[in-house]
Amino acid sequence: MKALLQCLSHTPLVGHVDPEQYILEEVNNVIDEARKRIETFDPELVLLFSPDHYNGFFYDIMPSFCIGTHARAIGDFGTAAGELTVPAELSEQAAQHVMNAGVDVALSHRMQVDHGFAQPLEFLLGGLDKLPVIPVFINSVAVPLPSFQRARLLGDALGQYLASLNKRVLIIGSGGLSHQPPIPELPTANEHIKDRLLGSGRDLPAEERKARTNRVIDAARKFVDDQNTLRPLNAEWDQWFLEVIASGNLAELDQVNNQDVSDQAGKSTHEVKTWVAAAAAMAAFGQYTEQARYYRPIPEWIAGYGALTAAQG
Ligand SMILES: O=C(O)CCC(=O)/C=C/C=C(\O)C(=O)O
Ligand SMILES: [Fe+2]
Question: Which residues constitute the catalytic centre (predicted)?
Answer without folding.
Answer: 115 (proton donor), 179 (proton acceptor)
